[in-house]
Amino acid sequence: MLRRLANYLILVIVATSLAYFLAALSLNPRSNFEAQKPRPTNAQIDATLKTYNLDPETPVVVRYARWVDGIAHGNLGKDIKGGSVADDFARKVGVSIRLLVIATLIGSIGGVLVGAYGAIKQYRFFDRWTTLASFFLLAMPVFVVAIALQMFAVNINESAGSTLIQYTGEYNPTLSGFWPVMLSRLQHLILPTITLTLFQIAQYSRYQRNTMLDVLGSDFLRTARAKGLRRRTALMKHGLRTAILPIVPLLVYNIVLLFTGATFTETIFGWHGMGEWLVLSITTNDVNAVAAVSLFTAAVVLVAGLLSDLIYSALDPRVRFS
Amino acid sequence: MSDTSQDSDTSQDSDTSQDSGTSQDSTTEEGLTPVIETSKEPAADRHGGVPPLLEVSDLHVSFPSEAGPVRAVRGVSYAVRPGEVLGIVGESGSGKSVSSMAVLGLLPDSADIRGSIRMDGRELLGLNDAKMSKIRGKDIAMVFQDPLSALTPVYSIGTQIIEAIQVHQDVDKVKARTRAVELLDLVGIPDPHQRVDAFPHEFSGGMRQRAMIAMAIANDPKIIIADEPTTALDVTIQAQVLEVLKKAQDVTGAAIVMITHDLGVIAGFADRVMVMYAGRPVENGPVDEVYYRPRMPYTIGLLGSIPRVDDDERRALTPIDGTPPSMVSLPQGCPFEARCPIAIDVCREREPELVTAPGANHPSACHRSRELMEGGGEGLLDPETIYPVPPVPEAHEIERLPRAERTAVLEVDNLVKHFPLLKGAVFKRRIGTVKAVDGITLEIKEGETLGLVGESGCGKTTTLLEIMDLTGGQAGSVTVFGKDVREVKGNKARKALRRDMQIVFQDPMASLDARMPIGDILAEPLKTHGWDRARTDARIPELLELVGLNPDHADRFPQEFSGGQRQRVSIARALALEPKLVVLDEPVSALDVSIQAGVLNLLDELKSRMGLSYLFVAHDLSVVRHIADRIAVMYLGRIVELGETKSVFHEPSHPYTQALLSAVPLPDPQKERARERILLTGDLPSPANVPSGCRFRNRCPKYLQLDAGDQQRCESEDPQLQSLAPDHTAACHFAEALAVV
């Protein structure tokens, strides 16, 4: 286990370093300042770039060394507007977590249940329709679904005569007090959660259906029923419990990686989370932010790897102690 | 341990004591005789007025399929009385498992089930899942075939037994656990307190099957249905498990329905037997009646087609030609008609009923059963002779030479194959050695068959692969046709050697490429060795004919053939280049008995016709006895006994050989009941952890009888093969012949 952790750590370091070099060498933060109006003088730009550790004249290795030194002191550098990347970072991670936790929970549990039930009812009504719907969804780009949902929400709001469902931003900043803010947050959460949940259910249910089908014909399920377990108990306790094993790594990786991967959903619904930030930082030539996001992504992969190992070995005695 | 039901509720206690009362006299060794002996009454009567526990009448099961309904079971009726053991025998696809799944209500919803299944007078068919769940595992328990896949991999053995207890009994977890430990102890799991927390993958096959039995008897069932409970196991383990099943029956007093394809297992275990063919019972009666006075050609054929360990003379087996009919489109008339040697016109028109023919003591389904009388006679048919006995092939000229004058085709001297046991991801370090093959010496002469037998994991296959590898192994030497393979340098020379030695694998499904027509499969070795097109084309029909297949079928794909036919294709492929030595790795173990006989006869015939030598690897001693001239018994990477087949079978001198032979069940009820089994304790040790001195000592029954000084010798000194007779050696310090068959 320790060795595996060490391996992952090395991978994280290699991945973030490469990302830093790539970002530092290919992005041109200077252009941001040149585009500013009024345009700062060249000397000003140079000075700013220098303080932000973005000076193209300094060898990239030196910049990298400074960046690493900063990280060691908990400092992720300055973003292109002079703000602290670390502060941005904390805020955006928070946003992503608030956006994703509910969607991920519903999406994974829903996906597993839909898939398993579809397998039990193979080729029946439920199975045929969920299969069709899943492939329909999976074949569609996220933004189509998201925008369709937004239009749907507009219709509902109009027919209700008030804004029941919000479709941009995280909450209404003009509100105050715990309950009004909470309510506003929920209203804003509905659409992105639905979007993310739908896609997760569509994807996971396909995998779960296959693994469940494998288990349905298995001898141990027959044994469980021969013991006197009812069909449903046997299916849940022996069937689903075993059928979930093969998709555990997939679930864990997907869930954890969603933290930087929900780019479209975040952008369309105006949530300023990690996914949106990644794209934004690249388009704004924000080297330090890109590096920070890469660092985060790599760390998240590490966490996902460890988590899936841990969960898997907790669930499957056959891989324990090996 | 006798009162295992102490934790169960009181009503069960009384049930049990009643049941075991009746079971005692019918199942214990001494009490077995009354029924069978010579009694002229049907065995069913021996329980007097006891009403049947389980009564299946006119059961029909069919499954929908694209080709039409598959009529898997077509009118099965039987009754099981308390404490009775009913054996159901049949080949794969005969409907034997489906009918018992129907009893438990475990068939898929798509199955169409008709008829009646009654337990204690209560109709089970049509009960909903909730009601059936109360019966399953409590009144009717089940033991399945493959205990690895039959246990849920993610729960410990204990959890699964506790679950079985708690489903039916209102006891807390602690009590259920105590009971689970008791049950494991009862079925002979060592260290039950620790092992109760082990997972299925940490158990060996035999142990898992014991755990399955523990689970089955957890609620003192009235009936235990055992579906091929020992099929996946080695003979010594099979003997152990059968013993445990018997014990389970004594403790619970349950009746047992034993489903198997093995007539030997049934012979000693069952009171009554029902033979099934194409979804119907074709013969039904007390074991002795059915085994000694069969009245249905299928039963007669089955009994004639099994090789037996107690067979002395070399005879050809009587195979049943053809294959069972498709259950989708059954022919009109008797389903066995196409394979039957005595079919007459009426057999093609009408399917016979299962009735007791005049002069018979048990029902059978054959239009001619009244003519099938023991001994034959005027206007009668002798069951012994209805199947044309294939002639024993005339020995090849080589075989007629005395052994000493023949040349050796394969000599293996002290061959060793050790696998390192490694640990660590980056830096591998050796933490042990798996001694898969640990010094093997054997020799095969021209025209000779050497049978290599042993339990799974003893190193048989590794030995074969090492020989076929032609590199000489890690130590020792392999000499093929007089050439030491170490001296054979270069691919060309090795290829030339290869052409003279060919291999036939176990699984005819997996060893033939499903995407190649069999003609191409047969042409491949020829092409590889540079035969031109015309010669190859001429050779293929020749080969197909040689193995008894239709030469016109060369363009068909393997899946269009049955298992037995596919194995014939494998044999034809091996013979394509006219080799001198053929290595056969369990060539018949995947086949049904009636098919197996045909393949064995074919091998025998080919050998005599072409003067081949065989290295025949098998775990089935009866098969080996039938085909081999000499036999080598392997245990943990070593040969422990080697000699002429007759001599080894008559006077097995190594305790392991004796145990192995005594574990083989005979398809002969009276002999089987009279036999005393040498039961080995425990499982085959891991070849990574070979005991010091004699590697068999920790399971050896003889070791236990020795005094301390002699035991010391077994512990410290590794016994070498010592000569006992002109061609018979055994690796035991205290080798002593003991007839066990």
Write the layout of secondary structure elements.
The complex is a heterodimer of chains A (322) and B (741).
Chain A: H1 2-26, H2 30-34, H3 42-51, H4 60-72, H5 85-120, H6 125-138, H7 142-160, H8 178-216, H9 219-226, H10 231-243, H11 248-261, H12 263-268, H13 274-283, H14 287-315
Chain B: H1 10-27, H2 33-36, E1 54-63, E2 70-80, E3 85-89, H3 96-104, E4 112-119, E5 122-123, H4 129-135, E6 140-143, H5 157-168, H6 173-186, H7 192-195, H8 205-216, E7 223-227, H9 235-252, E8 255-260, H10 263-269, E9 272-277, E10 280-286, H11 287-292, H12 297-305, H13 345-349, E11 355-356, E12 363-364, H14 397-400, E13 408-423, E14 429-445, E15 449-453, H15 460-469, E16 475-480, E17 483-484, H16 491-500, E18 501-504, H17 518-528, H18 533-546, H19 563-575, E19 581-585, H20 593-610, E20 613-618, H21 621-627, E21 630-635, E22 638-644, H22 645-650, H23 655-663, H24 669-674, H25 701-705, H26 708-716, E23 722-725, E24 728-730
Parallel strand pairs in B: 3-8, 3-9, 6-7, 7-8, 15-20, 15-21, 18-19, 19-20
Antiparallel strand pairs in B: 1-2, 1-4, 4-5, 9-10, 11-12, 13-14, 13-16, 16-17, 21-22, 22-24, 23-24
Helix pairs in contact in B: 1-9, 5-6, 5-8, 6-8, 8-9, 17-18, 17-19, 19-20
What is the number of E strands of chain A? Answer: 0
Query: How many separate helices of chain A?
Result: 14
How much helix, percentage-wise, in residues of chain A? over 70%
Element pattern of chain A in H and E: HHHHHHHHHHHHHH
Kindly provide the name of the CATH class of the largest domain in chain A. Answer: Mainly Alpha
Biggest interface, CB < 8 A: A-B, 22 and 35 residues
CATH architecture of the largest domain in chain A: Orthogonal Bundle
CATH topology of the largest domain in chain A: MetI-like fold
Total count of strands of chain B: 24
Quaternary state reads: heterodimer
Q: What value does the average pLDDT of chain A take?
A: 87
Beta percentage of chain A is: under 5%
Q: Strand portion of chain B, in percent?
A: 15-25%
